[in-house]
Amino acid sequence: MPPSPHGTAGTDDLDAAEASEAEQLHRIEALPKEVGVLLIVAGMGGILLPGPVGSPFLILGGVVLWPDGFRRVEDWFVRRFPDLHRKSVRQIGRFLDDLDRRYPPAR
User: Are residues 43 and 54 in contact, defined by beta-carbon separation less than 8 angstroms?
Assistant: First the structure.
């Protein structure tokens, strides 16, 4: 039987993307409260000023500061805007990577 034109590579890529997204979300939840405040401020700036979208920063800042309350908001965001959520998590991941490079954790 010939291989399917869609194959399993597409599902493997999706599984890897979901695992990476789950890893990023776990990383976000483990952030210190100070970074949550920074995310909220960046989100407010993103809404008030032209440039980066502010809602992902607001939602993820809320997840850091109030994980139980904002979990439902994030779940709604995932169901309603899955592509935007995926891109937002990637954007926040880049932001956190940049913070780690600029201000490495104390050893």
Answer: yes
- Indicate whether 29 belongs to any domain: yes
Among 92, 86, 74, 95, which residue's Cα sits nearest to residue 16?
Answer: 86
Chain segment 17-70, per-residue pLDDT in tens: 666 777 877 787 788 888 889 889 988 888 887 766 787 788 888 888 988 888
Using DSSP's 3-state secondary structure scheme, residue 29 falls into: helix
CA angle 107, 39, 76 (to 5 degrees): 120
The domain in which residue 44 lies consists of 25-102
Q: Once rounded to an integer, what is the mean pLDDT over residues 13-19?
A: 65
d(CA 56, CA 54): 6
Number of structural domains (the chain) is 1
CB 77 within 8 A of CB 59: yes
